[in-house]
Design a protein that fits this description.
- About 45% of the residues lie in helices and about 15% in strands.
- It has about 450 residues and is an alpha/beta fold.
- Strand 1 and strand 2 form a beta hairpin.
- Helix 11 crosses helix 15.
- The termini are far apart.
- The model has no long low-confidence stretch (mean pLDDT about 90).
Amino acid sequence: MSSFEDWLPWLVLVFTAVSIILLLLPSSFGSEYRFVKTGSQSEVRVQLVVLGDIGRSPRIQYHALSIAKHKGLVDLIGYKASDLHPDIQTNPNVTVHSLAAAPGWLKTDKQWLFMFLAPLKVVHQTCSLFYALGYRTPPAKWLLVQNPPTIPTLLIAQIICFIRNTRLIIDWHNFGFSILGLKLGSGHPLVGLSELFERTFCAKASAHLVVSDAMGRVLKAHWRLRGPILTLHDRPFAHFQPFNENQRMDFLASCSETAFAIDEIRSGKTKVLVSSTSWTPDEDFSLLLAALLNYAKLAASTQRHLPDILAVITGKGPQKEAFLSNVKIMADQGRLKKVHLRTAWLSAEDYAKLLASADLGVSLHTSSSGVDLPMKVVDMLGVGLPVIGWNDFLSWPELIQDGINGRGFHTSAALSELLVGLFGQDSKQLKRLREGAMLEGKRRWDDEWDPIAGKLLGLCT
C-alpha cells in the first residue's frame, strides 16, 4: 500500500490548483462594491446585459437611463454595433462595456451550416460574456438580463450571480425557443433543447419582468418560476413627442427619404406611411408589398382619387436585400406607379421625428410566441401616430384598441382595404385614430418603470 508520504505531493498539487482556481474566480468582495456610498446616500449598482446590439435594444437603454436617473450605477454590457441613445453616452452613472463580436465566418443563414457553426458561436459568446460580467465589471447587487437571446446568457448569468452573490432579474421580451423555431421549425430537436435550457436556467431568478399580461399568464401557468412575475409594458421614452404641422413639414423637407415629394405631401396628394423592422422572419413584409401592389392597381384604375403613398421602412437585417429585390422587379414592371418605397437607417432622434411626421404607421410583427408586443407600435403611439398592424396574436389588444388608436389585419387584402379606407374617403376615421393614439401616448416610460422596476430595485418607494 502507498504511504501518506507518497500521496502528499499529489494532495499538495490538487489543493494548490483548487486554491488558484478559487482565487481566480470572480468575487463579490463583500457588499462594499454592490453599494457605492456617496455622502449619506447609498447608490445601487446594476449590471444590464443584452447579448445583442445595445443600440438596437431600446428597452435595455431605457432601463439604464431610469436607474441612472434615480442615482443608481449601471454597467451596460452588450455589442456596440450602432449608435447608442445620446443620453447613454453622456451619463456619468452609465458605463458601457462592449462585447467582442463573433468572427464573421460564424454567421450564416444556411440551416445545415447553422447546425455546425452555432455551437462555436455559443462558445465564443460564453467566454466573452463571462469575462465581461466576472472581471471587467465590479460586483453588483442586481443583474438584469434581456431574454432572448437565451443561450448562453441565462446560464452565464446564473453562474455569475452564484459566485458574486448577485440577484438575477430576467426581462422577458419573448421566448428564445419560439424565435429559434422560426429559423429551424418548431419540431426541430434543437428547438426542444432550447426550450429545456430556457426553462431550466430561468427558474431560480429573483424576479421576472414581462412585456405583456398575456406573457405573465403563460409563465405563471406553465413555467415553474420562483420569483415574482411583474408586467412592465413598454412605453415611449421622452424623445418621442408629437409634432405640429410646421414641425412635420420642416422635417420631411430636410429628410433625404422624403424631401423629393415634399410639395405633394404639403398638398395632400401624397401620404407618408412608415414602418420599422429588424428584417427577421417574425415580420413578413411581403404582406405590405402585396397590399401596396393592390393599392397601386386600384389608384390607377377604379379609385383614381386615392393619394400616392410614400412608404419609408427603417431598420437593418438579413431579409432586407431580398425584399428590395422584389420591390425592384415590381417597379420595373410598372406595378408601383402610385407607390414610392424607401428604406432608411436613422439615428434615434431622426427616427422619432420621422414617426411624428408620418400619416400612418404599420406593424408587421407576427409574434413567434403570441404573447410579446412590438416596441415599434409603442414608439408610434408616443408621437400620436395611428397604427395598423398584424393582430392575430394574443397580446395585441393590450396595445391597440381597434377603432380607437389603431386597426388590425391578418391578410394582405385586409391591409390593402385599410389603406384604401383611411387614405381615401374616410379621412375622419384617420383623424379619430390619431386622437386615440395621442391619448394612449401620454403614458410614458417613467410612469410605468418607477412603480414596478424602480420599486423592485429599491430605487423608488
